[in-house]
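Honest question from a wet-lab person: if I give you the sequences of every part of a complex, can you actually get the arrangement of the whole thing, not just the pieces? Trying it with mine:
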Amino acid sequence: MLKTGQAIAALRRNADMTQEQLASALFVSRDLVSKWETGKSPPNYQMILKMAKLFSVGVEALFDRDRVLTEELSPCLPPGLTVGAEELKEALNGFLSSLSLRDRAVFVRRYYFFEEPCAIGAAYGISDGYVRTVLMRTRKKLKKYLKGAFL
Amino acid sequence: MNSRMLLLAVAGIDESYVRESERSDEVAAEFRANRIRKRRAFAAAGAAAVVCAAVLGVMRFTRPLPSVTPPSESSVSQTADRSEPSSAEEDPAVTVPGAAEKEDAITAPTGEPTAPVGNETSDAPSRSGDVAPSASTVTPDRPPATAEPPSTEKTPDRTTSPPVDAVPTAPPATRPTDPSAENPTDPPAARPTDPPSGNGDPGGTPGAVFTKRSVGYEEAKAAFAHPIVPCYDGNFTGYQVGIVSRNGDVNADGSFCLSVDYTFSDGHIGLTDQDRLGGSSASTLGEVCEYRGRTFYVQTPDDYGSYGADSILVGYYPTWDSGVAYQAVFDTDADIYEIMDRMIAVEMT
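Yes, you can. This is the full assembly:
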């Protein structure tokens, strides 16, 4: 799976577009497109959706959801846990019900919609650093919750 | 557990939670409300600490003080009760209590004619007795001595003491080799003139207290004797130096600057010289956070509740358990990355 930036560049070239043309199509600057492609700054989820539509591909082609889940959510699972997806889903919903609205909303935006912290921060009027802080604390709570639920 | 399983689990998140997350205004309003609530709580806690300190200070000065009488017998008996136990016990004699309270005790205004507030300057020779009562009252954590008769002076109720800051603890006192030094009948008035034990050994300073003083940048730099950098953060409110001294007399021989705090409206960053502390304040509790090429240790209330349910502690120890340790205590709502940025901004090069 290519990283997001590499995927954007590849899809753009396949579509025979320049960075300028892609920028125009998305109503952003060419510099921003360049930053996306070089990985200096990730595109937000809205932009990923637009590009997926523009290039007629699924979001998965542009965004590696597996990586987010593996890197961020997998460490929350107790080692050696052997439960089915259904049980895990129920536990996850039970955990979400125990959270405050704001923590829950941030969690859902990140792991259901796979939005970047900067996009979540922009939506809720908080800094992306604070979003990462909330996510870190929530993951810690999730780890504790799952440990209590399954072990 | 593979990512496919996780993907299925998150895909099954309840629809109501998904819709809820899309109501940005509602969530943003809750973030705002929570921020305001925390700020108010933080301000209220600060105000309560100031009020407690002021009340305590007034109470001290409204009591008949031995110092206003000739510095002879009354101060001898009381000081003996206070200072001898610390030399007789191996427990840390220089438990370092909260600074604000000590400072307030010295500077608290009073209308009492018997209280020589205007003379509260630490360089007056006759004032060792004046300061001593405060010193005893700000070391309530000291355990009772087993080798000494019970003190006749009532120690202050802890509940009346103002909140105590992060408490660095100095090394244990050295047990005196001369048994006669433990005799409570010895005139303790001579103690303040004992030779200082040196800056690195507060343990040799019975009755030592930790006093925080608000100072300017230059004074903080000179006192801490390290090239601290000035802070220009928008929330920055000032510098505080922490002085370990005998009986609160910050100008006495043997007193030394242990720490400097950068105070902010929502917390503070403390720099502690661990070499002077004679111990380590480094702690690996909490979550390790690698940020901008440095390793930070983030302790939330879940990890380490003693910093309070509303506080978060971030530690940074560039030279581990020697040299200067950086510890930030902020409101839990503070952005950890901003805290780390602030710590890096005040890092000495």
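Two things worth pointing out. The beta strands of chain B are 208-215, 236-246, 256-264, 267-273, 287-291, 294-299, 311-316, 324-331. Chain B has a mean pLDDT of 63.
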